[in-house]
Amino acid sequence: MPRMQKNQIYYPRTYRRFQSDYKNQLLFLLICVLPSLILLLCFYPQLTNLLSRATQGCLSIVMPAEGLGIQYGEYIPFIGGVYFVSLPSNTPSFSLCMINLLVSFGLLWFCFTSKRKGKPLSIYFSIMLLIHVVSCIYFALASQYFPYTITQYSELYIKQQVGIWLSFVVIAGFVTGFMNNGTLLARCLTFFGIMGYSLVFGSVRYLALLYLLSAASSLYMPVVFFALGPFFDFLYLVFFYGLFVEHVIRRVNTGERRAVWKWF
Amino acid sequence: MEVVLTILKVYFICTVLLMLIYAVRHAVFSYNRMFGRQRMYYSDIYDSDMPTVSILIPMHNEEKVLSYVLDSLLNCTYDRDRLEIIPINDNSSDRTAELLEEYHSRYPFIRPIHRSEGERGKPAGLNDAMKVARGEIVIVFDADYRPGKDLINSLALAFQDPEVGAVMGRVIPYNVNTNTLTRLLNLERSGGYQADQQARYNLKTVPQYGGTVGGFRKDLVMESGGFNTRVLADDTELTFRLYTSGWKVVYANGAECYEEVPETWAVRGRQVRRWSSGHNNVMFRYLFRTLLTKHMSLREKLDGSLLLMVYMVPFLLALALLDSVALFFLGEMNVFVGWWAAFFVGAYNSYGNFAPFYEIATALMIDGIDQDVKLLPLLTFNFYFYMWNIGLGFLDAIGDLVTHRKVKWAKTERFTEEKKKETLG
């Protein structure tokens, strides 16, 4: 009877684990994460300049070009500032505030009734609607005290977006590089997929939000800040990560690759 | 006004730091489970002199499910001379008592007790049952659980170690494919046991006794006055009672048992609210004791404290959300977007949203389950669901603490019968 090879034993899930592939992890760190981080840190001022110019160009199609401009604001000390689009503010009328208030209460009632009550999406929308209710009341009673113009919002958005990109390099690098046993290619694809999507999503969202705020009014600023902020970035980050994890699971559970499992 | 703004900003920054601490903790657990040397359970011990075991099963109107748990236990391989099963019929108004007596007539070692007066609830029932139990070791199951053949043996083995006060097995849902909620709960359970509990066992921190699919030395609990009937989380309370008096809790990853998870959000919401209330109640009692005890190592104290606070954090996050809304309307939005915004975003999403993802993903990779990985993003919305329900549970615990009111016990609704009806219909 031929002697059984140890790598032919399919290990039980109870105590199996991966063997650290330090070489791949280091390689991934050196060719993906660190260069991306350095590039982003060195070139984010240019990146925001490019984004602002593109956004300005798009917005000029639907609104008077003379009101649009590009400004510069300080950001990370010793590294550089950011560019952002400046545009005129649009304060909501009292009647718009009241209509929004009534609609918000209606939607809140919708979220709190029937089978929708207590479900995750209902709770999420309820919180966002409550923020919008506060915004409606604020603008209805004291719009002159609202502390931000759309240009200030634009600056803050860009700063937050650069913050998201920087942290995503670190987080995506960490979870794809170190918390799994995927191939180097799959790691790189996932990492650049996340970062590429983040660049596109952040840019499109910037354009969409500026258009919404200038066309509709600053009334929606608080709700879009809280509802469409980093929360949504994490949805696609986790989605990409999920696809990657699925790939890893299939890879290490088929054929010869099952041998990657380390014996206890 | 300046003082208020300072307080709001300081609170915000403190919350970010707290979230970072939890993010690091989850990352350490995930990395350890994935690549670290796994600490073996006591599987290789062979002992012909196993302890006597009493299996206690609290029941309140469980006619729908009791046959599953009892039939599963009857199939267990543990020596019947050393085994007794004590279903605790706690004020049931359905056919639970009748069905239990039927089992008793067929299998004398199934010895139900019927409670129709006195305090209600699981701890009171367990206390009554322990008075009549003959076993040295008590193993507890909920009525909707389905233990495997070798489970009792696996759990009882741990008590060959004289340092072990309690043992906890792994819980796996059997109604996974019912709907999206049950699939998500399966992901959470996988992360909680395969990654979190096993890593804590590996790292010799504080694996948690979970109140079911687990056992403990009866004498230890009896000598310290039995279970506290004013505490909803008897499991967490026992974990910390044992640790603070020099005993250990161990986790048996291979001791798998199947349970029914809630199939509706309403039931799940009530369940986590109860857990939160009970867990926070235990936190109030044990946090300082944990920090000051001489019986725990620094590592155990650190992890134990974070474990105790874990059901308080969503409430703190809810306050942080209110805090950030207030800062926004007060014109202090720049608190979110200074040069350290990257730090904030990473921290907020690491604990608030992301930590469970890499821990769950770790567990799924180890378990080799690719079925529902794509549902991971949906867990993001659960963050708000848990923040709401766990936050309410925290407020319940504060109410209990302030008013000294009696805690109200409630059973998680079962779904098994509905399935049968649907099938028949």
How would you summarize the topology of this molecule?
The complex is a heterodimer of chains A (264) and B (425).
Chain A: E1 17-18, H1 22-62, E2 69-76, E3 80-86, H2 94-112, H3 120-142, H4 150-177, H5 184-215, H6 221-227, H7 230-252, E4 261-262
Chain B: H1 2-35, E1 53-59, H2 66-74, E2 83-90, H3 96-106, E3 113-115, H4 122-132, E4 137-140, E5 146-147, H5 151-157, E6 164-173, H6 180-202, E7 214-217, H7 218-223, H8 234-244, E8 248-259, H9 265-292, H10 298-309, H11 313-329, H12 334-337, H13 341-367, H14 379-403, H15 416-424
Parallel strand pairs in B: 1-2, 1-4, 2-3, 6-8
Antiparallel strand pairs in B: 4-7, 5-8, 6-7
Brief rundown of the structure:
Chain A has 264 residues and is mainly α.
Terminal residue distance of chain B: 65 Å
Number of DSSP strand runs of chain A: 4
Strand content of chain B: 5-15%
Q: Which assembly state applies to the chains in this document?
A: heterodimer
For the largest interface, the chains and their residue counts are: A-B, 64 and 65 residues
Structural class of chain B: alpha/beta
Tell me the overall shape of chain B: globular
The helix content of chain A, as a percent range, equals 55-70%
Strand order of the largest sheet of chain A: 1-4
- The whole-angstrom Rg of chain A is 24 Å
Please give the largest β-sheet of chain A. 2 strands, antiparallel
User: How many helix segments of chain A?
Assistant: 7
Tell me the domain tally of chain A.
2
The best one-word shape of chain A is flat
Helix count of chain B equals 15
Order of helices and strands of chain A: EHEEHHHHHHE
Helix and strand content put the structural class of chain A at: mainly alpha
H/E element string of chain B?
Answer: HEHEHEHEEHEHEHHEHHHHHHH
What is the CA–CA distance across the termini of chain A? 26 Å
Low-confidence stretches of chain B: 421-425
> What gyration radius of chain B follows from the Cα positions, in whole Å?
22 Å
